[in-house]
Amino acid sequence: MPFPGLRFSSLSTPHSDLLRPCGFTMIYFTTFILTLILSYVARAVPARGDAAPLEELYEPYEVTFDAQQAPPVTVYDVTWDKEFDDPEGSTIKTACKQVAHCYPHFNWLHTWPYICGSFSIKKDGSGTGCASCWNLTNLRTGKSIVFTAIDSTRSGFKLGKKVFTEFDGGKLGSGKLKAVASPVFCNVC
Q1: Sequence-separated (6 or more) residues with CB below 8 Å from residue 73
Q2: What is the pTM of this model?
């Protein structure tokens, strides 16, 4: 030692038990993380003989549907009513009176004139049918239109006269047609 009388006791820290819990915690977390990684790898790598041959993994397959599994197609009667043609028509007079405070007139609905009466709405406006969206497909012409249901009807759907004429290929015909209907998400309307 070059300076025998000089001690650097102020520069050295005394031995502390503070590092022992930190060291244990570090070892614990490292072991935990390695266990997670190795268990993931062990599940991802198949055991000998468990691996499927490449032909099975990458062979294209054909998806077929049985006709018995297809949902039944329901055909509805579609008629018209001139009340839905009036842009100032009052929504308070429909079965879905609860929309009247936000949309007092038909033309306030963003889907007008594509509004309709639906079998899914009860006369008192109860049920889940109010303001539901429907896709109707005319069986004769194949034309599809999306509507918002705001009123009730005994069966099928009831459209405005102008929209009915458009839906029927430009002619009013007998005032009744057959269509397939399916509910759609409201963002489609």
Answers
A1: 180
A2: 0.58
In a domain, residue 139? The reply is yes
- Asked, for residue 134, whether it belongs to a domain, the answer is yes
What pLDDT, on the 0 to 100 scale, is given for residue 32? Answer: 84
In a domain, 164, yes or no: yes
Tell me: pLDDT of 62 over 60. Answer: no
10-55 pLDDT, tens per residue? 555 555 555 556 666 778 778 888 887 877 666 655 555 555 555 5
CATH (domain of 142): 2.40.40.10
- Are residues 84 and 111 in contact, defined by beta-carbon separation less than 8 angstroms? no
Structural domain count, the chain = 1
- In sequence order, what E strands does 113-171 have? 115-118, 133-138, 144-152, 157-159
| Cα dihedral 173, 179, 183, 185 sign | negative
